[in-house]
Amino acid sequence: MSGRALKRIAAALERMAPPPLTAPDWDAADAFVWHVAPDRLGPVPRVSRVDLPLLVGIDRARDTLLANTRQFARGLPANNALLWGARGMGKSSLVKAVHADVAAQAPLKIVEVQREDLPSIGRLLSHLSAAPHRFVLFCDDLSFSHDDQHYKSLKAVLDGGIEGRPDNVVFYATSNRRHLMPRDMIENERSSAISPSEATEEKVSLSDRFGLWLGFHPCSQDEYLAMIRGYCDAYGVEIDDTTLRAEAIEWQATRGARSGRVAWQYFTDLAGRRGVALSR
To answer: What's the pTM value of the predicted model, to 2 decimals?
Structure first.
């Protein structure tokens, strides 16, 4: 084989194997997003989030996650956490708000990873374990469909494997499903398996690897109205209680739902009609 051919092969191999990830400027931000192809950590200078005091109706989940995160930031033992339950009730908002609250008092970074990028989680953990910081690794809307094998990659974060989870990383995930997989998938595998209890044990055990399960449930009407009143007070939107109640209830009726997300959507419409900007 000629030397020219060998050079072409070497160049092709270099393109297939990109250079190792260089450490980002950790001082550039408190939040980062993990990207692949090529691997990189992108800083997020301004995180889209709601202040912790504005999250209404989730007091127990708030206090539990806040205490766990404070322990972790101080170098003490802490659990991975699964926030599961009703849509629009502030699961991801709570993770971001808790991080902001703790990061204001102790050095703590948050890194968001997309569900479809879970196969790269081992490379990310290797990089974070060598960094001089503590990290909340965050995956929003985590769930697995039929024949989805991504859940196996997640076990590297959740106590499994020889190396286990790095001491400077804790994993928080949100999901609408408590067991991260469709109920009909669980039932189908149980009904058709020779050993029903073993058929789904591997997948269901993934949820068991989270030390904290924090449930989120639909809010009451009083909580829904309290959310909107809190937003109005925080952003300086003036409206009397009678008008707010009538409009907010009508808004939820047209949406066919009542949640924190619906409360924020009504408030956004209200602020726009009142000429109040929401940038803070």
So the answer is: 0.82
